[in-house]
Amino acid sequence: MTKNRFRYLILLLFLQIGFAQNTLLWQGYFSYNDIKDISQSSTFVLAASENALFSNQLSTNQIKTTTTIDGLSGQTITSLYYSPTSNKTLVGYENGLLIVINQADGSMLNIVDIINKQLPANLKRINHFMEYQGIVYVSCDFGIVQFNLATLLFGDTYFIGNNGSEIRVTQTTVFNGFMYAATIDGIRRADITNKNLIDFNQWSQIATGSWSSVEAFTTELIAINSAGNIHKYNAGSNSFISYLQLPQAAVDMRNSGSYLVITTPTSVYVYNQQLVLVRQINSNQVVDATVSFSCATTIDDIIYVGTTDSGIYSTSISVSSALKNTKPSGPARNNIFAFQVATTSVWAVYGDYDLFYNPYRLDSYGISKYGENGWLNIPYEKVFGAKSMVRVAVNPAKENEIYVSSFFSGLLKIVDDEPKILYNQTNSGLESLILVPPNPSYIDIRINGTAFDKSGNLWITNSLIKNGLKTLTTSGQWQSFSLDKILMDSSRTNYNRLSIDNNGTKWIATDKDGLVGFNEKNNVFKKITIGTDTGNLPTTDVRVAALDNNNQLWIGTTKGLRVLSNVNSFLTEDQLTTKAIIILEDNLAQELMYEQFITDIVVDGANNKWIGTADSGVFLVSPNGQETKYHFTETNSPLPSNAINDIDINSTTGEVFIATSKGMVSFKGVATGANEDLNSVFVYPNPVRPEYEGTVKISGLIDKATVKITDIEGNLVYETTSEGGTIEWDTTAFGKHKVASGVYMVFISAQDGIETKVKKIMIIR
């Protein structure tokens, strides 16, 4: 094994054991709108959203969140249960993962027994937890599994389908000595004291059809079938008798102690112990949003209702009162398709398109902004009907002015957080695609890549039309540029990201013609595509082109990476040619990012490249690409998914934001841009306390600054030259051993030696 390979494996080990818990490095930005399940104790209510948890402490109304930053999986949560007897919370997932959280200290245990079962992956979903005498019975899509809360080990598995086959179990309960299981093929029961319940013959079917839930409540056993028909169990006939027909199918039923609570998408029904309906809550009673209910529970006289789109609502059961909304601040959805970081804010959109640029969902999710006061969600009702919003451009000269690309409706302008105008075919130079045969009534304006040039003009790509490149000037005038001569078929070409280099050349990523460059000063178009003589790209489907600090253009495609060595060659060479980056891996020459579907490339202040992929997470590579510094995935970091949608960097703070298909996180690295002087040099953390496990960062540097760190006696322990605005020190003496407690001097000087700065660091071991 080579030294580099060994270092990489050590790095991965560090990531696996450290990053998920190190909130100093990572931060999460998750949505808490889509509530999958609720549980409760006498003092708090606990809710599970798609892949995060939050609790509301009733006495203080304090909200606490738990995310992948704390160790949760990024997979989709399907079930939640708090056990008051063990003070543990069980989190069940769509893929069969079980996470046990010890509420006493917050520690987590990932249990993968169900994931590892030799069963089809689509049968491992966890649907429900039911505790009985220290054993939790886990209802899954294949059957029932025992889980011991004391040993935290799985026990027997019950395959209770016909002839011992797999069967989807939606809920279990214990009633008069029997365990009852609601399944998609009847209700089945067995003696709870039977030691041989793994034998399917011990289970008898007492009802046919598909059932969503079964629950013991006081002296009754209640079950609901998939059609929403509530049944009572009749012991005399050993059968279920129809009791009440709900207007629609139930999505949840539970015994919360004093009440039986039944939830449908539009109503929650609360029954007392005499099965008298004492409270009904309808979704149209929520005045501030259009909601769909997902589950509900009660604590004393308060009912807590989970929704699929607005978190939790609560109200009194005995007194008709207004519904109170509770949820942590977060974006509207986890699946952020694109965003842009401004100085003090992050703007995010949720529209998307498939691999072939088809905006098939035509979503209506609105826009989100993250700022100093948390999240602001601008609803769809305010965006003038703009659908499939796929890109954001913040005006660098006026950060209160935002332009949002819609891949169906045009270009939305926002000023001071208020949508002002939707540019379309009626009020701008934007154009709708034309169907074949023509349909004049069909309007479809597909705007994607946008970028501001140095003069403040906004450049825009308009897909599937002849004049596919547009500009909105600072004076409000529209101009169009035809790409018909450079493209094989402009009316069938989709555009992705747009970037502008220091020469004013616009680089346009296309799906069928590779990368197109355009400079309006000389009205010159050039194309980089496949073939050794025509550009050397691995495919014509380009997704991004990013300019680095050395005037190199890093080009991401659906089949790998290429680099144009100098963008100045656009002005001098007839045919632009790219090269792959060749690295040595175990003494074998390999192509960096070979065959990877690259979704984004961002260059940080130190000229490192952050490369996002469609299914392999994020790579951070050195300025020349020869060293992979980090490879973040959902298994070795808090990334909730390996499907990376977008990356951007706050160049002031160095915070790297990463949007995935299941949530956005950020990494606080050393990605700050270089300063013009040393007046803002800052050392953090300072002092370095014994419990701190990260690195010391020295920010506010100028490029190519010399940084020397000595002990108080003048002995040199570290020396480096900055690339960008920040360096980090691992608090060792040249990587050999941790330095001792004491005061350390930081001497900083510019490359020419004229400007200097001295700082101190206190280290406490």
Automatic annotation (TrEMBL):
Stretches assigned to the PorZ N-terminal beta-propeller domain: 45-204
Gene3D superfamilies: YVTN repeat-like/Quinoprotein amine dehydrogenase
UniProt entry keywords in alphabetical sequence: Signal
Superkingdom of origin organism: Bacteria
Pfam families (UniProt xref): PorZ_N_b_propeller (PF21544)
SUPFAM superfamilies xrefs: NHL repeat, YWTD domain
Protein name per the record: T9SS type A sorting domain-containing protein
